[in-house]
């Protein structure tokens, strides 16, 4: 999986897992993406650093370097919005 796709998928499931702490499937999927980022892309740490009106800022420690990646907020929050709008999951 491409690095950018892995980070985006991590972000979406991170937001779901944070909003739904009892959702075991979300926690397991979050663990999967953390492991994928670690093993395939040498990411030692990843976290949401800040959220503003339009962007989500993600801090990534990769290969001994720190970098900031920004993702459109509406895209990053879309999976959580889809889950919350489906009565089957609420």
List the helices and strands and how they pair.
Elements: H1 3-19, H2 24-41, E1 43-51, E2 55-62, E3 65-72, H3 73-76, H4 78-85
Antiparallel strand pairs: 1-2, 2-3
How would you describe this protein?
This protein has a 3-stranded antiparallel beta sheet with strand order 1-2-3. The model has no long low-confidence stretch (mean pLDDT 95). The relative contact order is 0.18. The N and C termini lie far apart (31 Å). The protein is α+β, with helices and mostly antiparallel strands. The protein has helices spanning 3-19, 24-41, 73-76, 78-85, and strands at residues 43-51, 55-62, 65-72.
- Provide mean pLDDT, rounded: 95
The total of helices stands at: 4
Q: Radius of gyration, Cα only, in angstroms?
A: 13 Å
Q: What percent of the residues sit in helical stretches (DSSP H or I)?
A: 40-55%
Give the structural class: alpha+beta
Strand/helix succession = HHEEEHH
Uncertain regions spanning at least 5 consecutive residues: none
Strand content: 25-35%
User: Termini, distance in Å?
Assistant: 31 Å
Q: Kindly state the number of beta strands.
A: 3
**What oligomeric state do these chains adopt?**
single chain
- Tell me about the biggest sheet? 3 strands, antiparallel
Q: Largest beta sheet: what is the strand line-up?
A: 1-2-3
* Rough outline: globular
